[in-house]
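Lay summary. Proteins are chains of building blocks that fold into shapes, and those shapes determine what they do. In this project we predict the shape from the chain. Here is one chain we studied, written as its sequence of building blocks.
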Amino acid sequence: MLCACSGEQFKFEEAPQSPESLATRDFSASCLSSRTAGDWDSKLEDIQVDEAESTLKEALSLNYEEARALLGRLEYQRGNFDAALQVFQGIDIRSLAPKMIKAIAEKTRHRKPRARGDIVPPGVMSMHSVSLLLEAILLKSKSLKELGHCREAAKECRIILDIVESALPNGMPEGIGEDCKLEEMFHNALELLPILWIKAGLLDEAIIAYRWTLVKPWNLGPQRLAGVQKDLASILLFGAVEAKLPPRLQPWGQGSPSSSIEEAILLLLVLMNKVACGEIKWDEEIMDHLTYALSIIGQFELLAEHVEQALPGVYNRADRWYFLALCYSAAGQKQAALNLLKKVSGFSESKHKPHISSYLLGAKLCSEDSKHAQVGINFARKMINLDNHQSQHFMSEAHKFLGVCYGNAARICLSDSERILLQKECLNSLSLAALNKREDPEVMYNLALENTLQRNLDAAFNSAIMYSETMADNSMEGWKLLSLIVSSQQRFRDAEIVVELALDEAGRMDKFELLRLKAVLQIAQEQPKLAIETYRILLSLIQAQRDLQARNPDHAHIFESEAIAERNLELAVWQDLAAIYTKLGSWSDAKICMDKAKLMDFPSPRSWHTTGVFFEAQSLYKEALVSFSVSLSIEPDYVPSIVSTAEVLMKLGNQSFPIARSFLMNALRLDPTNHQAWFNLGLISKMEGSLQQAADFFQAAYELKLSAPVQSLV
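And here is the predicted shape, written in a compact code that computers can read:
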């Protein structure tokens, strides 16, 4: 090995014609002797490129290309990218590529690497020369990148990959880089190429480059290979391009990934498996990407499995439980999520720092189900009662969920006095939330809803208007609530106008629900023919949507939730139509509609209730009682059937009054604002001679009816 560090005199001779010279031995810029190093630096600073090249060739016995490669490296290391590029452009890689390919192929024919002193076969370029030239190409690519020419840089970088692939079509064997820099240069090029394509804005080319790296065994280390897989998954997820696998990369046929998201998920799952087996280190980005990917396709249970597989120490207990709770709640397993959140706020974690996110998530989940109202109140109270005062945002969120939970608790409360107290606390908490976050649409929506349920219609109307303004009139829930509030004021035509305005902006599913509300408002205005026509339009739209879904069976999983909602809506339409035809005395049409409803959902309490009303209208009281009994056997707290049962019992004679009264009192326990129950209690009191009590009941019924919306709000 030629080494100027030894202090020996260089032998000056003419450059040989073969590609061999110093490159057959190891070269390093640091090998220049201390005696000549200072002169060397000053010379490079003062002379032109051609003079420096000539000096290198004469001093170190280099050929033309090698001298330029070394000089270009020095210029690159100094940050003179223009000068480096000028030097590298003088190297004719196209003419040298066949020799480089031959040299690499010759190297790999021998399983045992040559020693540094071994003689290179005649006419074959040495591996050191190959490495030097590959480095020149790589540095040329990097220089172009630094100068902002990323596309040209990528093309230069690709030359390295083409040369090595031509020489090693089956991948890179182990040990090839023991006595040269070939493997290092090649691996650097593998990692650089997709980055250059990304900077050039050609994401498709970047994806091809990443896939090319992964298709063959290029002897990348586990961590570097994992980095390539992670980067490919990242660009597939966030690159906003659909890059399907080409046929030659689909060895499993139909089992191959069919989309960029599927391919990304498979890559991330492979990486998570490597982490679990200890092949690579834990990388938080892998989990972040997997969380995003599985979330957008709705695979939250699979995500929870991988969270559970995370090794101890990756997450602390509270964070792990919180993450799992998020997964299970998104998967619809609310009870499992609540159980985990209860652990976070339990005794075992009492000595640790309070986990604010868990408290808020627990309160939010409980606010969505009245059965967990008390648990939700506890979560929200823990948040509010923290010693260290949190930000106004967190406090407002806690008060909002607390108010909703109080409202839910009031609706299932059996005690009148306790119900009144809970309703008051509900409005107080929501008002506190509104003070700090008046621009929060959820707060204004819940305020409007609770005021409507408590029949504070003016306050409800104002909150609903503020909600609509906050949402810029883009919320169908807001339009629907506003329409119901207006209907509670007995302004049915105005409510219908609100619905018609909303229909112009509504999406498909929202439009279906608004059309049903429009029909209900037309019934309230005693326009049954218009209502029937509106229902006909709604049914035709639902059928058209069902036909569309049938023609696209591959997208069934996408339409699944919508299909369930459409089926429930269609069921409600048939039940509504049965009620209309019953009022009109069109028994055959009413029966057809009832049969349709029962065919869709036989154990539906409302379907059996509608059947009971149908029999009651024909004075078939025993049959009506049977139907109402079936309805109550399905759902014992179904208030309409409880009230209707009492009405039929009243028609059977005075001896049934005590039983009817008990039914009505039970109905009022469940729904204190049911005006029909109050009215029938008034009738019983009147028939029993309690006129003052009857008058009070009639007054309550009248006031409640005047403030009742045309549809239930909860």
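What the prediction tells us: The two ends are 87 Å apart (CA to CA).
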